[in-house]
Amino acid sequence: xxxxxxxxxxxxxxxxxxxxxxxxxxxxxxxxxxxxxxxxxxxxxxxxxxxxxxxxxxxxxxxxxxxxxxxxxxxxxxxxxxxxxxxxxxxxxxxxxxxxxxxxxxxxxxxxxxxxxxxxxxxxxxxxxxxxxxxxxxxxxxxxxxxxxxxxxxxxxxxxxxxxxxxxxxxxxxxxxxxx
Length: 180
Prior knowledge:
With about 180 residues, this protein is α+β, with helices and mostly antiparallel strands.
């Protein structure tokens, strides 16, 4: 059963080979013409600051050692390319014998991507300064406000909202607002 819906899947890899698997999948997707089926490959990592002997050091830890996330359209060909990438031991949620895996739920992937500082929005937010947007997530959910600044690189924008009769400025992520 082929689905032409883009979803996130979890790959099991040899521990310590996550970044190598990511590079291999990206390379194979390009060289095998699967760019329209295999999109983002992510190794969730978090940076911790440790202090040793009076020196501060930043250490990068894998959030899920031995696992890689891949955003793809699950077809027989894309499944084959990813499954047979060196270092990949299988898909999480697959029952083996050639069965296709179950994708992550949207809430799960949104939570993971947000925790590592990546955008969960897959489409660009097309608003201009001065336009009104509706806030759909966060403390100001349900309110409307006027866009005063847009930072495309960080995928953030500043919005003025009316709160208790006063204009208040707040910084929001692109995925927290919808164009009206």
